[in-house]
Write a structure and sequence with these properties.
- With about 500 residues, the chain is mostly helical.
- It has one domain: Up-down Bundle (Amino acid/polyamine transporter I).
- It has 19 helices and two strands.
- The radius of gyration is 22 Å and the shape is globular.
Length: about 500
């Protein structure tokens, strides 16, 4: 067995530009994690854990944060070992087998990356609708109906979906023009969104706190629910939203070939970025609970009556801002969420094609995706193909369905990549490891157990969405065999 892990030779003389510094690398983690989820999914989580009150809501977010940081610390070792284009694809290829690497890349393109881009872009349009009510979700040009697990959705164009299409197109074109431009956009929007979140948290728990609301929420912190082992599947299913909001931290590894001093900056970005965002998420929910009642009714006449559980269109962030500042506050928060989602989509668009590039270098994807633009030195064809598929997914406009499909597939490959960490310790013990996984082997093993348990819960609690996700992964097996045959 080889003692070093090298990137596969490139088929072109055009090389990537190392244009991502330490701040930009951290911004990629922060910017792709903080999208629309933190401003939306607390409503659904609150409905699912309703009997366990505010404590149930915060427990879900805190547990998600712990699991996310542990996963990132395990990835830090792999990222420092193999800082090459493709990131997690390379980890799976070297740690398990080329087939598992391909299945990750296939699922990333088909569901994970494109689906997340579509979901967050649609969310951008949803919040733009706060400022301009004419930008509505109403379909004005229908292409028909599609029966999906969980119901029937209408395929077509609506004002919100058109906005989503435009965002994807514009950001793809900007990212084709160079990684420095894409990284600069990412850093700018990451700083802006962290600043907006910090202001929301600070004002929500201090100056603009609603004393009566806070007293009611924290006075009945754990609600009236009964605590037993039966609670585990309920909380597991409720965590889909928080996991989606905490996803995509691995994207920085995809662009490892363009990170300066990657053996230092990649582990730093993973550890610091996930820790900061997880803390922000918990504090943001504490701020929500200081200004909005936890319980509410779907037909409430104002934001207070609807509470967190039934915030209009689940826009909890907007409802909290309206409680603090009135109508103007809701609009200001909508702008903040738009900045957040715009930056999130940019980071996702930037990172994904680096995986398709690595796959093409191995002869396992379309050859064009393995080419870099001769002027801008970016994977231009991969960026275009990803944009096209994400735009097709936007036509469904179904934020919730896309969320459920994405998170199960993501969890599967997070688990497999951590298993690859263990296998590489055995099969390639002499490879230099500038950084080692925190608490190995106990903490990474705990992550595997927790992730596996959550997947089992989702398989039984949300089978309409999780089983199709497994089928999509499985469909990659015959496709892999075809590509391998072509390569040979």
């Amino acid at each position: 067995m080889a003692s070093t892990l090298e990137a596969r030779p490139e088929s072109t003389s055009v090389q990537f530009v190392q244009g991502i510094g330490p701040l930009a690398a951290i911004s990629m983690v922060v910017g792709t994690m903080i999208g629309s989820g933190i401003f939306i999914v607390s409503a659904d989580i609150s409905r699912q854990v309703g009997e366990w009150g505010p404590g149930g809501l915060l427990l879900v977010w805190a547990a998600t944060g712990v699991v996310t940081v542990i996963g990132a610390l395990a990835y830090a070792e792999l990222a420092a070992m193999m800082p090459s284009a493709g990131g997690q694809y390379v980890f799976l290829r070297e740690g398990l087998s080329p087939m598992w690497g391909f299945l990750f890349g296939w699922t990333l393109f088909a569901v994970i990356q494109a689906g997340t881009i579509a979901a967050v872009a649609v969310a951008f349009g949803k919040f733009l609708g706060v400022l301009a009510p004419a930008i509505s979700p109403d379909v004005f040009f229908s292409l028909g109906h599609l029966t999906m697990p969980g119901g029937t959705i209408e395929i077509g164009l609506s004002p919100q979906r058109i906005v989503a299409l435009a965002v994807i197109l514009v950001l793809t074109l900007l990212n084709i023009r160079g990684v420095r431009l894409g990284a600069g956009i990412q850093t700018t929007f990451a700083v802006a969104k962290v600043g907006a979140m910090a202001a929301l948290i600070l004002l929500g728990i201090t100056f603009l706190r609603k004393a009566d609301v806070a007293a009611a929420n924290f006075g009945n912190f754990w609600g009236t629910g009964t605590w037993s082992l039966a609670l585990i599947p309920i909380f597991g299913a409720a965590s889909v939203g928080s996991l989606f909001a905490s996803d995509a931290w691995n994207n920085v590894t995809f662009a490892a070939a363009e990170v300066k001093d990657p053996k230092r900056n990649l582990p730093l970005a993973l550890a610091l970025g996930t820790s900061v965002v997880s803390l922000i998420y918990v504090l943001a929910n504490i701020a929500y609970l200081n200004v909005l009642p936890f319980h509410g009714t779907a037909d409430g006449m104002d934001v207070a009556a609807r509470g967190i559980q039934y915030a209009a269109q689940d826009r909890v962030g907007v409802a909290a801002a309206e409680q603090m500042f009135g109508t103007a506050g809701g609009m200001a928060m909508a702008v903040a969420v738009m900045l957040s989602t715009f930056g999130c989509v940019n980071g996702l668009i930037l990172a994904g094609p680096r995986v398709y590039y690595a796959m093409a270098q191995d002869g396992l994807f379309f050859a064009k995706t393995g080419e870099l633009h001769r002027v801008f030195r970016t994977p231009w064809f991969g960026l275009g193909a990803q944009a096209l598929w994400a735009m097709v997914l936007c036509l469904s406009g179904s934020y919730g369905n896309l969320l459920d499909y994405v998170i199960f597939a993501s969890l599967l490959f997070y688990l497999l990549t951590t298993i690859a960490l263990f296998r590489l310790r055995v099969t390639r013990p002499d490879v230099p490891r500038p950084v080692r996984a925190f608490g190995y082997p106990v903490i990474p093993a705990f992550y595997i157990v927790m992730t596996g348990a959550l997947m089992v819960i989702l398989l039984f609690k949300k089978p309409l969405y999780t089983w199709p996700g497994l089928i999509i992964v499985a469909l990659g097996v015959p496709i892999y065999l075809i590509w391998r045959g072509k390569k040979q």
